[in-house]
Design brief:
Distance between the termini: 55 Å
Radius of gyration: 21 Å
Number of helices: 13
Subcellular location: Membrane
Protein name: UDP-galactose/UDP-glucose transporter 5B
Helix content: over 70%
Largest sheet: none
Pfam families: UAA (PF08449)
Number of strands: 0
Organism: Flemingia macrophylla
Keywords: Antiport, Membrane, Transmembrane, Transmembrane helix, Transport
Strand content: under 5%
Length: about 350
């Protein structure tokens, strides 16, 4: 009887400690993701769209940013593997890592290049439409089956994205053009981004399931291949020395790139921690909030005007994603779940932010 009484007395205290501990974990995860990825978004727009120096020079070497990001992430991943005393040997054939690497380079390059022609709010909201290419690649590569509500959500989100892109504010100017945003070319680059990103996440999923590999193992070899390929591309295009010369002349650009690579790598830790601790559904909700905050911050910081049609489009997109998240009672770990589709995010999909 005494034991029962003691257990009943200590239960509220234990429950309180558990809740407090969970609150601290949630605060740590949310603040980490918001800080790193919102900073990442602001920096990538600043580097690609804001001129440097008295001569107003623009940084045009997007592949150089890919190289810097990947070499930083590769070094950190190697350090994580060595610190945890796990093998550095590849689990899958190298050429399969290269498939992910090539598609990932194309994804990130399209993302950076698109910022030359469309604003960051347009690019960020367009990323929400990646559900469709992920579902297509999932059906082709993984033979997955999706449910009716998944297709409905993808359609509604894509509709909202289309409204946001097709009705820009007339005063938003592209720094690489002589007038309004070059929507056609910018949208073409974003379509390339969505297609390649959908393939990247789906093929990563296939590697994880087919070879039972550690996430740091895949990140290390994928980013290592990306380093080699992006460096080769820079040399072939003749952009390596001009990019180095640019950052040598413009020291503020150099520090921006260093900070960009640092927060991009740091975000990997917070993303993995959040998914491992709280699951993909909570992570998807946080990422949706991060995208909304990034758009609002970009509009204020870089003075992007939004038309009333764009406000409607943004409301459709974020309203649909939030509704889907809150209507789901618990994270369902099924292959047909739309959770990793919503933002292209899962613990399997974390090579780039």
């Amino acid at each position: 009887m005494a034991e029962t009484t003691s257990a009943s007395v200590s239960s509220p205290s234990g429950d309180s400690n558990w809740r407090e501990n969970k609150l601290w974990k949630v605060t740590f995860a949310v603040s980490g993701i918001m800080l790193t990825l919102v900073t990442y978004g602001v920096l990538q727009e600043k580097i690609m769209r804001v001129p440097y120096g008295v001569n107003k020079d623009y940084f045009k070497y997007s592949l150089f940013l890919v190289f810097c990001n990947r070499i930083t992430t590769s070094a950190v991943s190697a350090g994580s593997l060595l610190a945890s005393k796990k093998a550095l040997d590849p689990v899958a054939p190298i050429y399969k890592y290269c498939f992910v690497s090539v598609s990932n380079i194309l994804t990130t390059s399209c993302q950076y290049e698109a910022l030359k022609y469309v604003s960051f709010p347009v690019q960020t909201l367009a990323k929400c439409a990646k559900m469709i290419p992920v579902m297509v690649w999932g059906t082709v590569i993984m033979q997955k089956r999706y449910r009716g509500p998944d297709y409905l959500l993808a359609f509604v989100v894509t509709l909202g994205c289309s409204v946001f892109i097709l009705y820009p504010a007339g005063t938003d100017i592209s720094p690489y053009g002589r007038g309004r945003e070059n929507t056609v070319w910018g949208v073409s680059l974003m379509i390339g981004y969505l297609g390649c990103d959908g393939f990247t996440s789906t093929f990563q999923d296939k590697l994880f399931k087919g070879y039972n590999m550690e996430i740091h193992n895949q990140i290390f070899y994928t980013t290592l291949c990306s380093c080699v390929l992006s460096l080769t591309g820079l040399i072939i295009q003749g952009h390596l020395l001009p990019a180095i010369e640019f950052v040598y002349i413009h020291k503020d650009c150099f520090f921006d790139i260093v900070l960009l690579s640092t927060v991009a790598t740091a975000s990997q830790f917070f993303i993995s921690y959040t998914i491992r601790t709280f699951g993909a559904l909570t992570f998807a909700t946080i990422m949706t909030t991060r995208q909304l905050v990034s758009i609002m911050l970009s509009c204020v910081w870089f003075a992007h005007p939004l038309s009333w049609e764009q406000w409607i489009g943004a409301a459709i997109v974020f309203g649909s994603i939030y509704a889907k998240s809150f209507m789901r009672k618990a994270p369902e770990k099924t292959t047909s779940s739309v959770e990793p589709v919503q933002n292209g995010n899962s613990n399997n999909f974390k090579v780039n932010p």
